[in-house]
Amino acid sequence: QGKDKKSKCAGVKIGLLQHLYQFVRSSSKPSLPGPPSRFLIGNMMELTHDHLPIHLTDLGQRYGSVYRLKCGKTTMVVLNSCEVIREALVKKWSDFAGRPISYTGDIVSGGGRNISLGDYTEEWRAHRRLVHSALQRCCQRSLHGVIERQALHLRKVLMDYQESAVDLSEDFTVAASNVITTLAFGKEYDKTSPELQELHHCLNKIVALWGSSWISALDSFPLLRKLPNPVFACLLKEVARRDAIIKQHLNSYKAQNKINEDAITGFLLQGLDKHQSTESGELLTDVHVHMATVDLLIGGTETAAAWLSWTVAFLLHRPEVQTSVYEELCRVLEGRYPKYSDRHRLPVLSSLISEMLRLRPVAPLAVPHRAIRDSSIAGYFIPKNTVIIPNLFGAHHDPAVWPEPYSFKPERFQEGGGGSARFLMPFGGGARLCLGESVAKIELFLFTAYLLRDFQFVLPQNECSLPDLTGVASVVLKIKAYKVVACPRP
Ligand code: HEM
């Protein structure tokens, strides 16, 4: 009994010392600035703005490059400059590699077993390593050919429009999605395919519903989970539909006699046998392959497609940039189609791509991170479990780094233009760097090069206003619908 009492006493002392240590650490550092927080709701209203990345960037002008927002019991810290984002995501990656643990996140991520929303655990690391090797292998073996094929198909679709005014966003989505489905299960779809439409409809709906305040309120205010919520019911239905579609794909893939290791799914299924057990003994299973497929489809479709729509719209605003890219392609490639390895010989095209990644990082707030231990950013104390929002849009519009940050000026990335790719972070960084970065870079380069080699994009004759460049921000930053005419180059 005496021993028991002693060890309890020691436990209490250690607990007290830990609290004291945390108090001393936090009080020796300045407290985080931020807008006044309201009773119960905190700063929740700040998060309901239409264009959240712009609003968070504006708050950064007032409160500095690191500030806090309160939401229920959660403290969020918004990072607005490349310097502080790099400090958290790259330099102190192991402190900030977590993802917020949320009720609704768990539902859409198969209980946290996907890569993008899964927390930083041994199991997650083994999962990410396996999918990363699959993607690297694809990049080396087949990716270039898969993208070239889709770019040529897109060319045919645009030719078939015969210079009529059209909204190209869906064609871009199909092209980007076909790259992923070909890589994943060796399958590509036509735009009219009901199977493809169902898949897109369902994935888009999940992303949109999950981003809605009806759903995020369930994470901040658990009591609301007891009330009927039709939006939440709809989310559950779409998640079930998504899982049924992916399951059917995986089953029909497995039913083939020979598993093709060239397709990502084949490699992952084979990989399960080889890497099944992580160091701590957890197993990677079919569920991980299933969720990785969801990750690649969601991560790889809307992002690249939205980026292409943005690029064409900006080019309508500055047609002379199109001309200079076209002239460069003709001069350097002498009529042939480009390869990714040509990129260093095409500085004008490369500068356009960099400027578009700067102006419209299509995942403008990345995916929220979570501090997995007490740490600090820019000298501010950041306690464990703080949610970190890397405002990539804000960092790319920081006037201290980018003169005239809101202007579309690809020249800034050309020789002597003063812009440096060192300050670009469209894919985030560190342990959570976009898993599809290499795929995306090849895709953006080849699609843009093929499109600008073969077409001149012009405003429809009956259209007097240029596309609105403000955009609609959700998880992905998209442009509002607009029509364009694709005129074949001679
Ligand atoms: C223009 C194209 C793209 C951009 C700008 C982009 C950007 C990003 C960003 C900012 C993140 C969050 C990083 C963080 O949390 O710090 C991310 C995560 C991710 N992206 Fe991408 N992405 C693109 C294309 C792709 C493609 C093509 C794929 C799949 C082939 C993909 C798959 C993923 C996955 C799986 C994650 C989660 C990584 C993790 O949590 O560890 N992305 N992406």
TrEMBL record:
Cellular location(s): Endoplasmic reticulum membrane; Microsome membrane
A matching Pfam family: p450
Major location (coarse): endoplasmic reticulum
Enzyme superclass (EC): oxidoreductase
Keywords: Endoplasmic reticulum, Heme, Iron, Lipid-binding, Membrane, Metal-binding, Microsome, Monooxygenase, Oxidoreductase, Signal, Steroid-binding, Steroidogenesis
Required co-factors: heme b; heme
Cellular component annotations (GO), alphabetically ordered: endoplasmic reticulum membrane
Keyword Nucleotide-binding: no
Membrane topology: Peripheral membrane protein
Binding locations of heme: 434
Top-level lineage group: Eukaryota
EC annotation from Swiss-Prot or TrEMBL: 1.14.14.16
Protein name: Steroid 21-hydroxylase
Organism: Poecilia formosa (Amazon molly)
Lineage: Eukaryota, Metazoa, Chordata, Craniata, Vertebrata
